[in-house]
Amino acid sequence: METRTGLQKLAQFPFQLATWVDPDGYPVTAAVKATIDPAAGEAVFAMPAGLTVPV
Fold it and tell me: How far apart are the first and last CA of the chain?
């Protein structure tokens, strides 16, 4: 699937899920509301409150 198509599908949902591995090796998932721009190939969201997301 192309990036643009995937982002268009992702934009149809009321929220998105950000998932990463914390420093201790545990998976973390948080619901976020992303601003999605399929043409630019971007999904941008604010950091979830109280959680540290690695950059």
Answer: 25
Between CA 5 and CA 12 the distance in angstroms is 11
> Measured between alpha carbons, how far is 5 from 28 in angstroms, rounded to an integer?
26
Residue 25 DSSP one-character state? S
What single letter denotes the amino acid at residue 13? F
Tokens of residue 30, six digits: 């948080």
Model confidence pLDDT, tens digit, residues 5-51: 999 999 999 999 999 998 899 999 999 999 999 999 999 998 888 88
Specify the pLDDT at position 44. Answer: 94
d(CA 39, CA 21): 28
Dist. CA 38–CA 28, nearest whole Å: 25
